[in-house]
Write a structure and sequence with these properties.
Blueprint: E1 56-61, H1 67-85, E2 88-91, H2 97-105, E3 111-114, H3 116-125, E4 130-135, E5 143-148, E6 167-169, H4 175-187, E7 200-201, H5 205-214, E8 219-223, H6 224-233, E9 240-245, E10 253-256, H7 258-264, H8 268-277, H9 284-293, E11 298-299, H10 307-315
Parallel strand pairs: 1-2, 1-3, 6-7, 6-8
Antiparallel strand pairs: 3-10, 4-10, 4-11, 5-8, 5-9
C-alpha cells in the first residue's frame, strides 16, 4: 500500500439557487474490525498509541442508510484509521439516532459520525466533546423534497403545494431529513407538523424513498447525497420525482469524545483531524474511503459552524 500524503482543502461554499435566509454561520463493514495490517502505509502524524485496551478507538454513526451500506462504509473507515493512527479501531453499529447520542455520552463510542442536529445534541450532553472534521460537501449541504408522480406536481421552489399531501420525514432527529426541511417549510408558511394525519417518520433516507415510491406517503424529504447516490445507481423508483432542493446548511461531522482523549493523549483531536483531512483522492486506499463518503475531501470544522443548527433545533423544540 502507498504512503499517505497529507492534503488540505476547503474554501467558501458555493451559493445555491434558493436564498440561505441569512441563517448560515460564517465560516456508512463489519461489526468489529481488528487492527489493520497496512504494510508500508504510514501515519500522517507523529506518535504511537498505547497498546492493549488503552489503544482502542470505538467508532459509530447515526443509522441514516441501509445497514449493509453502513457496514461497508464504517468497516472500511475502521481499517483505514487503524493503519494510519496505529490504534485498534472498531465499528459499533447502533439501532437508532438516539442510541448514537446516548452511547457517545456514556463513553461507549469514542468517535461518531453525526448529523448536524445529533452532533449538537451529543456535544451539549458531553462536555469536552469536539468536532474534528466534516466532508467538503457538508459545508454546503442540501435536502431534496420528493413527491410521488401520481400527485402530478412538477418541480418547483414553492413548498406550499406540499401542505395538503401525506408527508414523511426521515428520522425524527435527522438534520437533513427533518430539522432543516421543517425549518424551510416554516419559512414558506407551511406548518411542518400540519400535514394530513400528521407527518410520518420513516427512520432513514432510503426508507423515505421506498415509502414515497409505494404511495404510502405522497411526499417526503431526504438528504441530497443519498438522493444523488441512489439516482446514479438507478435505484430510485420512477414513481419518485424530485420536487425541490433546499438552501444550504452545515451538516454531517465527526465528533470526538473526551474519554478517548484521556486514554490516547491530548494530541488525539489533531491526529484524527489530520487523518481525515489528509485523505487524498490520488491514493487508491484513501480514494475508497472518500468515495464511500461521497466526498472529494474532508476539511476541519468547529462547534461554531453548528450554531444555527442549535438555534433552529431550539426553535422547533428538538434541542433543550
Amino acid at each position: 500500500m502507498s504512503t499517505r500524503r497529507a492534503v488540505r482543502s476547503g474554501g467558501p461554499a458555493a451559493r445555491t439557487p434558493l436564498s440561505r435566509r441569512g441563517f448560515l454561520a460564517a465560516g456508512a463493514a463489519v461489526l468489529a474490525t481488528g487492527l489493520a495490517a497496512c504494510g508500508d502505509r504510514t501515519s500522517p502524524v507523529s506518535g504511537t498509541a498505547p497498546s492493549g485496551p488503552a489503544g482502542r478507538l470505538s467508532i459509530g454513526a447515526i443509522p441514516d442508510q441501509d445497514p449493509e451500506v453502513l457496514q461497508r462504509l464504517y468497516g472500511t473507515v475502521a481499517d483505514s484509521m487503524s493503519g494510519a493512527l496505529d490504534v485498534e479501531v472498531t465499528y459499533q453499529p447502533v439501532t437508532d439516532y438516539g442510541a448514537a447520542v446516548s452511547l457517545f455520552r456514556t463513553g461507549d463510542l469514542d468517535l461518531v459520525w453525526f448529523g448536524g442536529l445529533t452532533g449538537v445534541q451529543a456535544r451539549l450532553q458531553t462536555p469536552g466533546a469536539e468536532p474534528v472534521a466534516q466532508r467538503d460537501i457538508d459545508t454546503d449541504f442540501h435536502s431534496i423534497f420528493v413527491v410521488n408522480a401520481a400527485t402530478g406536481l412538477a418541480p418547483s421552489e414553492d413548498l406550499a403545494p406540499l401542505a395538503g399531501l401525506r408527508f414523511t420525514y426521515g428520522s425524527e432527529t435527522s438534520t437533513s431529513g427533518r430539522l432543516m426541511p421543517a425549518y424551510f417549510l416554516q419559512e414558506q408558511g407551511v406548518d411542518p407538523q400540519g400535514f394530513p394525519g400528521g407527518p410520518g417518520f420513516s427512520g432513514s433516507h432510503d426508507a423515505t424513498l421506498a415509502l414515497v415510491a409505494s404511495g404510502s406517503y405522497q411526499a417526503g424529504v431526504l438528504n441530497e447525497q443519498v438522493w444523488t447516490s441512489r439516482t446514479e445507481e438507478g435505484a430510485v423508483d420512477p414513481a419518485v420525482v424530485r420536487y425541490a432542493r433546499t438552501p444550504a446548511y452545515f451538516d454531517y461531522h465527526w465528533l470526538l469524545g473526551p474519554q478517548a482523549v484521556e486514554r490516547l493523549g491530548d494530541d488525539l483531536p489533531g491526529r484524527v483531524t489530520d487523518y481525515f483531512t489528509g485523505l487524498s483522492a490520488a491514493d487508491p486506499d484513501d480514494a475508497e474511503v472518500l468515495e464511500l463518503f461521497g466526498a472529494g475531501s474532508f476539511v476541519p470544522t468547529e462547534a461554531g459552524n453548528y450554531d444555527s443548527i442549535e438555534r433552529i433545533g431550539r426553535q422547533l423544540g428538538l434541542v433543550s
